[in-house]
């Protein structure tokens, strides 16, 4: 008899398994329908020996000391500050928009002081900030909105920014200096030997069994367990009884090129031309040295694996119904991006899982994190 059946071996499922086994001494079985652990953060060496992220680039960044310290038990890190260029009107310019972007796009030579004034003139006033369009237009005005944001968002979400919640774009800063880092978090690092190696070390515990290539429906009535931790889509768990929650999906086109460098930055965004949104060159992220290089193009789609919960008020409303059902389902805990229908980054999912662990185990976060990693090889 297992104490917990955990559905999904991504960040949510793996953190839960590791803490429940290590701190609580529980016996855990993880059931994962894909042929690998790691969820969407899974990485692997391709046929040419290049480390690639199967489900698109995953950049680790967090302000949480707890999350960083916790994951550091399972991996060493390499410092990595992410940078993105946008291809607009045949030029490559830094994104988020900064002083260099403004000067390059408008053919000017403004100083940091002058650019603030310049942006204030471009920005339009709006009574309320409700949608993503409101957020951008009130920061940079219509022209930059049209060139850098509007079409990218339409491709990414299949919706105009005016139809999307302000939270989708609220996180994108506009800088009056030349800081071209994509993130400003305290910790910006990548797992030195990749994400999958980190997951392997998390799950390497005698109390944790992992069953790959298995949908939990196939085994939930065969394998005995006391409680379930579910990290798949919450609407799927309840057989879509209130209807399907909308998710956005992606198609990935992986390529390897016989050249050491393919493009001028880790990620190049293509807001306006082409059906893909961006192209990533993995060697920037992984630091790997290799005579060839691997890249991936991302094509947003409506159909396919659920990747992004779509942040719109009516979807949040529909999710609230499933959330209530989840609360009323004893013996099943819902955690992770799909199970709580939240547009979470990896660190937020780790934090959410640690919080659920403290509730289940009845310990404070500090005590939970201080427990030694016993049993790990
Ligand atoms: C393209 C892309 C890029 C991203 N980039 C970043 C980034 O740069 N930085 C960042 O911090 N975050 C990024 N994220 C977000 C990050 O992927 C998530 O926050 C994180 O992986 C969520 O972990 P999870 O465990 O909640 O879900 P998942 O990783 O989705 O894991 C859920 C697992 O459950 C399994 N499962 C589902 N249903 C069943 C079933 N019926 N039976 C058995 N198993 C099932 C799935 O196969 C999956 O492996 C990105 C996401 C995407 C899609």
UniProtKB/TrEMBL annotation:
Residues 147-343 form the UDP-galactopyranose mutase C-terminal domain. GO terms for molecular function: UDP-galactopyranose mutase activity. Its cofactor is FAD. It comes from the Bacteria. Keywords: FAD, Flavoprotein, Isomerase. Its EC number is 5.4.99.9. Pfam families: GLF, NAD_binding_8. Belongs to the UDP-galactopyranose/dTDP-fucopyranose mutase family. This is UDP-galactopyranose mutase. It comes from Archangium minus. The lineage of its organism: Bacteria, Pseudomonadati, Myxococcota, Myxococcia, Myxococcales. The gene is glf.
